[in-house]
Amino acid sequence: MSRVQAKICGLKDPLSLQTAIDGGASHVGLVFFPPSPRSVNPEEAALLVKDIPSDVSVVGLFVDPDDALLKAAVTSADLDLLQLHGEESPERVAHIREQFGIPVMKALKVASPQDLESVSDYEAVSDMLLFDAKAPKDLKNALPGGNGLVFDWRMLTNMELSVPWMLAGGLDKDNITEAVTISGATLVDTSSGVEEEPGVKDPRKIADFLAVVKAIK
Question: Which of 12, 34, 150, 204 has the most neighbouring CB atoms within 10 Å?
Answer without folding.
Answer: 12
